UniProtKB/TrEMBL annotation:
Family: Belongs to the leucine-binding protein family.
Keyword Hydrolase recorded: no
Record's protein name: ABC transporter substrate-binding protein
Residues passing through the membrane, by range: none
Species this protein is from: Alsobacter metallidurans
GO process terms (BP): amino acid transport
SUPFAM superfamilies (UniProt xref): Periplasmic binding protein-like I (SSF53822)
Length: 400
């Protein structure tokens, strides 16, 4: 063998060894890219996932990470079909985001069947770590219990002891009203009525008139995205706050407040797990994110996609393998979480990611110092108090 042939053979051998050493993972960002949740998830979540891959320097660590995206249109049948195709035909290893609780629950079950990895950042129902828990699912960012615990308890403590719910008629709305009602009652309040609205909705006038007529001190909106925006706008038109009632947005995102404007949204109390202006690290990330997202700051869902993707890649690096989804999930649970957006945390055996939650109040226009300076912090809810105790969730695969 001459030197030229030998060098070529050696190069091919090294390339083959390198290829074998590299772990390829395909991450599917599944969400609403065209409907009422597109601003809080959508392309922003895909940007967040790509940023996580870049910041982790996955390629330098022997991980080839590919991001694919799809629009589930907030329909469980479409979301389930995409998840099956991704797992069965397209080689997707992990699905992340998935707003709309009915879709989130469907994807959770399919992921379990296929023994893949599912990190939910967008869906709210606490059933993901309760009655419909799965050992292949991690619920990262927030849930209906945490929202109800933060906003519901705070509003009762501030004197809002009678409640009327306007609830989106699907899995998320039902779970949010259920969890909020229980926590309001526990805090000494009383639910005096509720009404369900179609999902998505446009005209909330009849529901708001019922809330007004109830005389409840708090009109609670158990909905999200465009439904919340329209509800709050129409509540302002009906003079509900001027009439002495308070509006509780049980799931409000920064994009909702931006859309509403401070004149309409001022004084709204809400619970989130992330705010771009929390600290130097969240500000640095959010500035980079906004540059890629048409100047828009990240929602907590998009922040959760970034952090969840980062932790997944850490587990893949530690294992040097990806084929057994349950083993990857267990590695993620075993490893402490640590990222610039949520800080240090952990993942419980039932799949609930633990971190602090924050109670915010929307600023008055006179208090805001910039376009995205929208919140002031009322309280920090520590991780061990922010989420439903595992023993109360009823997750079947958790022992003890």
């Amino acid at each position: 063998m001459n030197m030229k042939t030998w060098l070529l053979s050696a190069a091919m051998t090294l390339a083959a060894v390198s290829a074998q050493a590299q772990t390829s993972v395909k991450i599917g960002v599944l969400n609403d890219r065209s409907g009422l949740y597109a601003d809080i998830t959508g392309e922003g979540s895909a940007i967040a996932a790509r940023m996580a891959v870049e910041d982790f320097k996955a390629a330098d660590k022997g991980i080839k990470a590919e991001i694919v995206v799809a629009d589930h249109q907030n329909k469980p049948d479409i979301g389930a079909a995409i998840a099956r195709q991704w797992y069965d035909r397209d080689g997707v290893d992990m699905i992340i985001d998935v707003p709309t609780s009915s879709v989130a629950l469907a994807v959770s079950q399919i992921t379990k069947e296929k023994n893949k990895v599912y990190i939910n950042s967008g869906g709210g129902t606490s059933d993901l770590t309760g009655a419909q828990c799965s050992p292949n699912t991690i619920h990262w960012t927030y849930d209906t219990w945490a929202l109800a615990n933060g906003t519901g308890t705070a509003m009762v403590q501030r004197g809002g002891n009678t409640w009327f719910f306007i609830t989106a008629d699907y899995a998320f709305g039902a779970a949010l009203e259920r969890d909020a009602s229980a926590l309001v009652t526990k805090a000494g309040g009383k639910v005096v009525g509720s009404v369900k609205h179609p999902f998505p909705g446009t005209d909330f006038s009849s529901f708001l008139l019922q809330a007004q007529a109830s005389g409840a001190k708090v009109v609670a909106l158990a909905n999200a995205g465009g439904d919340t925006i329209n509800s709050v706008k129409q509540a302002a038109e009906f003079g509900i706050v001027k009439g002495g009632q308070s509006i509780a947005g049980l799931l409000v995102f920064i994009s909702d407040v931006k859309s509403l404007g401070l004149n309409v949204a001022q004084g709204l109390v809400l619970t989130e797990s992330f705010y771009w202006d929390n600290n130097d690290q969240t500000r640095a990330f959010s500035k980079r994110f906004a540059e890629k997202n048409n100047g828009k700051m990240p929602s907590m869902v998009q922040a959760g996609v970034y952090a969840g993707t980062l932790h997944y890649l850490k587990a893949i690096e530690a294992m040097k393998a990806k084929d057994d989804g349950l083993k990857v999930i267990n590695k993620m649970k075993e490893m402490p979480t640590d990222d610039p957006l949520f800080g240090k945390g952990s993942i419980r055996p039932d799949g609930r990611k633990l971190h602090d939650m924050y109670l915010f109040e929307v600023k008055k226009p006179s208090e805001s110092k910039g376009e995205w300076d929208l919140y002031k912090t009322l309280a920090t809810i520590p991780a061990d108090k922010a989420f439903r105790p595992m023993a109360d969730g009823g997750c079947a695969f958790v022992k003890g």
